[in-house]
């Protein structure tokens, strides 16, 4: 994720809840904040009163501290009612990690978009060692330094330790669908780019958008390329999804997965679009001479990163490079050394 300019308004929003606590955003809508071990250090989850129970949106990562926090939430804030549905916005571990555990605990169905559910199931079945090998291969193609490749190959397994196995069945949700939650209707919107089919929930009567990772108040969501599709164009998907969200009212209260709730949806979308436009223009100037993705990304971000972050630097750099290639503004050329380079035409 990259820091971007802009200050979203949060007037009238309560202070963030502490671990194992919940605060009311609207009647029947609770804000929960679960801990993460690294940036952005937390993920927001939401409980919506659903008749004689609760609909939970997102579950946090599979860690003992997260389970303890949920134990406290379930004991103190459910008013003696069960969790009747678990909706996961997308497959990333900080959102889906404990969904299976919560579904099993409450005998509650799992609601996910099809591609998000299948992506999570695929990663849980994948050999963790092969995931690491694929990351190293992408780094090598991007021209990453040898110390980064050694670091990747020596890292701990990921995803499978972070995500409890999911239920073998799920209820498919999709953009355009209307969920009845208690006495209110919530329309589902899709956010692409950060994830393949991330679900956002808009409650028109409440004036609220549960925005997942699509629109964040102070950072730009990570929009990157992953090893299975190195020539993907996720930035186009991200910008298009955000443009579609401009159809929602400007005074919508945005509930992001990271950071605090805020007002100013349209302005924030414009800031994010301008941020990426600046990155694209900078990359074109950088690639006047041939550059590897690693070189171009480091120059684009204009700062150094530790080895754990280089994967994201390369992924986000590739997203911007691929956007430019797809529109004929850069050329992509494979070298005899197995490294791909990018340059301006002519």
Automatic annotation (TrEMBL):
Domain Metallo-beta-lactamase stretches: 42-258
InterPro entries per UniProt: B_lactamase-like_C, Metallo-B-lactamas, NDM-1-like, RibonucZ/Hydroxyglut_hydro, WH-like_DNA-bd_sf
Record-linked Pfam families: B_lactamase-like_C, Lactamase_B
Descriptive protein name: MBL fold metallo-hydrolase
Organism: Falsiroseomonas algicola
């Amino acid at each position: 994720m990259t820091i971007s300019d802009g200050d979203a308004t949060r007037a009238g929003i309560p202070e963030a809840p502490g671990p194992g606590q919940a605060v009311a955003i609207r009647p029947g809508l609770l804000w929960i904040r679960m801990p993460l071990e690294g940036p952005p250090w937390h993920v927001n989850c939401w409980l919506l009163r659903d008749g004689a129970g609760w609909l939970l949106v997102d579950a946090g990562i599979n860690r003992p501290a997260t389970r303890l926090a949920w134990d406290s939430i379930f004991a103190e804030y459910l008013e003696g009612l069960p969790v009747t549905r678990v909706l996961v916005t997308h497959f990333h571990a900080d959102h889906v990690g404990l969904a299976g555990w919560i579904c099993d605990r409450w005998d509650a169905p799992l609601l996910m978009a099809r591609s998000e559910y299948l992506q999570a199931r695929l990663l849980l079945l994948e050999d963790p060692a092969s995931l690491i090998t694929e990351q190293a291969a992408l780094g090598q193609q991007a021209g990453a330094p040898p110390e980064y490749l050694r670091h990747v190959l020596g890292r701990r397994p990921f995803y499978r330790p972070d995500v409890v196995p999911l239920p073998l069945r799920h209820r498919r949700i999709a953009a355009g669908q209307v969920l009845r939650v208690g006495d209110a209707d919530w329309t589902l919107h899709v956010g692409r780019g950060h994830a393949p089919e991330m679900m956002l929930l808009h409650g028109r009567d409440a004036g609220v958008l549960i925005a997942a990772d699509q629109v964040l108040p102070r950072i730009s969501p990570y929009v990157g390329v992953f090893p299975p599709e190195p020539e993907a164009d996720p930035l186009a998907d991200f910008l298009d999804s955000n443009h579609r969200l401009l159809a929602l009212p400007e005074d919508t209260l945005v509930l992001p997965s990271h950071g605090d709730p805020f007002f100013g949806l349209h302005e924030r979308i414009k800031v994010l679009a301008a941020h990426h436009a600046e990155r694209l223009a900078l990359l074109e100037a950088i690639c006047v001479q041939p550059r590897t993705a690693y070189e171009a990304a480091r120059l684009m971000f204009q700062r150094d990163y530790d080895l754990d972050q280089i994967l994201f630097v390369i992924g986000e750099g590739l997203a911007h490079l691929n956007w430019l290639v797809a529109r004929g503004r850069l050329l992509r050329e494979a070298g005899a050394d197995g490294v791909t380079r990018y340059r301006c035409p002519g």
